[in-house]
Amino acid sequence: MTADAPQPVQMIARGRIITMDPTRRIIEDGAIAIDKGLIVAVGAHADIAGRYRAADMLGGPDALLTPGFIDAHTHCTQCFVRGLTSGELPMIPRIYNPAQRVLTADEAASTVRLLSAQMLRAGVTTLCEGTLNPDHETAILETLEEVGIRSILARGRADQDFHHASLYSQINDRSWVKARDGEAESDLLRTEDLLQRFPSRGDGLIHAAVNASALLGFSPRYFTEGAALARRFDSTLQVHIGRDREEVEFCLDVWKRRPVERLFDLGVVDEHLVAVHAVLASEREIEILAKGKAALAHSPTECVANMNAIPNLPRFRAAGIRVALGCDNQANDMFATMRAAWLIHGARWGVERFDPEFLPAGELLEMSTIESASSLRIDHITGSLEPGKAADFLVMDGTAPHFMASQDVTSELVRYGSRAEILQTVVAGRVLYDRGNFATIDMQGLRDEATAGAAKVRQEVVDRRYRPLPAF
Description:
The protein is built from 16 helices and 18 strands. An 8-stranded mixed β-sheet has the order 3-2-1-4-15-16-17-18, with helices on one face. The chain has an 8-stranded parallel β-sheet with strand order 5-6-7-10-11-12-13-14. The chain has a two-stranded antiparallel sheet with strand order 8-9. The mean pLDDT is 95. By secondary structure, the protein is an alpha/beta fold.
């Protein structure tokens, strides 16, 4: 190859590029050179075409290229049962948990394939899975590797018994907790092994994290030693916190502190903490999270599904708290999730203040890409289209009617874009979804697995509903 000859690379993608780089560059007729799964160069198409050549070409002058979306919070094994939760409150312990427990390892693997197919079809290139059942862990991990989607696997197992005295039993009853001796230490050894195999700051497709799911089920030792692991491996400690009124009441009864205040007392509020939901965080608790430089995983559709509360997201943003959007198995589509955030926070905070800038579209896109990557501590490898990062990106049809008459591409993507415009979903330079076809998922086999799995969990939990599903 002569000095002036174009350098051979694996792939070149062309289109209008939303880079999400530090300057938030948008390149009108741009191109991305990709080799060995990594981005080699991003720039004007004329420049890239003169410097590189590739056998595989994606996109074109009318395509739209964006970073792949990041779903910052989900639970794969809920995928078969989510429809049975419609119109039911509360439903997590009563419907979701029993439906997950009844699954075999093979059925858990099927849920991963189903959720991954939904994600890839909707442009999600990274998901964050919070698993709490050790019997499913190997199947989940192996299936994530099989599918090839980038994943954060946050694992943990409850080590504490608890009892919640609900409102009408408090005349004669009180809430309590009791840790099970030795379980925190043994389970965290498993987490440490996973962190060693799949480092958060590594270059592989799997990134490990610590999951201390909730204050009720995890002991103080688990929290403090889990946080120490997250710091040592530069990973995250992920905690459902401030999710429902029962949790707040429980914490006040047992510890005389609100949930985030309790985390502060345990010494685990720092840049490694991902506070999941925090919909009931008080002003004081938001200040604690901000001072500790913690991040928030926010699932706007789940706010409506659970009807616990809508967090004061503009206040979190103003406090400087990083926010990552997650589907939490609702919709499994980041377009729907961004739009849900725009609508519910617009109705809750924008309308009453007559403020159309309560949550700009660019910030919602950040929460689905680079800010999410930062929150999950994987921004070294994904979240933006920059040289040296993995080629995790979407090719969208820029000629689609909803993208015509373009004035502000970021706003149009968030408000009007959908999975219908996605042509290809690429993870680490590998096209995993291409115009209705999945490279690593047998869709006919998956349909059969999903049908059988849905029937099984329905039989297990349908009678747990307070009311039967409506006929229409």
